[in-house]
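Whether sequence alone determines local backbone shape is best considered at the level of individual chains. For completeness, the protein is quoted in full, as a sequence line and a line of structure tokens:
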Amino acid sequence: MKIAVVGTGYVGLVTGTCFAETGNQVTCVDIDANKVARLQNGEIPIYEPGLDVLFDRNIAEDRLKFTTNLAEGIKDAEVIFLALPTPPGEDGSADLKYILGVANDLGPILENYAVIIDKSTVPVGTAEKVRQAVAQHAKVDFDVVSNPEFLREGVAVDDFMKPDRVVVGTTSDKAKKVMEKLYAPLVRQGNPVIFMDERSAEMTKYAANSFLALKITFMNEIANLCERVGANVDDIRRGIGTDSRIGKRFLFAGIGYGGSCFPKDVQALAKTSSDYGYDFRTLRSVMAVNEDQKKKLLPIVMEYFGGNLKGKTIAVWGLAFKPYTDDIREAPALENIKALLEAGASITVYDPEAMDNVKKLIPNITYCHTAYAALDDADALMIFTEWPQFRTPDFVKMSKLLKEKVVFDGRNLYELETMKEQGFTYYSIGRETVQSSVPVI
């Protein structure tokens, strides 16, 4: 099939590359000439494991192309994906100006029937708005379909090539046949393509992400209660996660969720609810708890150092909102670093992928080439991202580099017994505090 993907951000680039891998001819379109030039030269502007292999192969085999020209990109395309940003406005609603702008541009340049697909996460009713925008100047027949993505950063290629399910919102039999043909190579194992109306498909994406955010937030509240009653949240996670009605995933306690999806989608669903006169109280609670949870470790650090961080150096491991990505959108590390700087601390940091992105926002901290370099002569370590290389460190080396053997762990990477044996003071989330030394004041 001939496919056009408008937008070469995270979703658009993964979508275009993976569909090229299944034998389609894909042209990705973006108004950013610099980004398109980099892509044409074989440079991927995002970090996503496994994407580079597919990207290089499909460019070499001439199945994947890039252009800034919308008319050129969509020429003869049977399918046109809209994978454009929908940033939250001040009131939490998703901004549709990019999607509707392209929809307006598509109408007069469509030369043949095409299925126009909303791949971006969009509010209920967006497919109708896109249809109206295209129809103003369209001279040929077309359909607008909602096809939300369910990609997890860090494993997006596997998620796309082996989807749990594909959700398609359309009431057009003609569009349905096109979508069945498009996704057939990806669902040969029998995973379902679930057809529904456009509004239900749009709501499905928001419902899925909001429910997962709810699971994370619930476990963080359980963790906070565990600290008061003397229970261990890890044991509770195992105890409830083996219940098939609950499941094991998204039950890890920590310092809250971030990224490009959960915060934005929870806000947008809450705004949609408000627009329709419904008070979605659980979502309001999720947002409030998550904001507090992000900064949970700060008062603990302040208390440990007697309320004064001036002259202290805090080492930070992890900047991305999760491992296997360079995405720092809504990352808890950023809020914590800014608060530590305001309190007078100096900061040394290490992240395997995200440091270049953070340098643009926070230049006045020390970026280190290794995790251990960040520890050198630091007064404490704070952990914000569960990168695998942080899970089994050389504790002896850590002890020699840190001024004080104290770790504030926002991701519960280490076993309590291990930290006791290694002689660390260790603060984590929803578990016993390991006290192995007297706090320095």
The mean pLDDT is 95. The chain is about 40% helix and 15% strand. The CA atoms of residues 3 and 26 lie 5 Å apart. The radius of gyration is 24 Å.
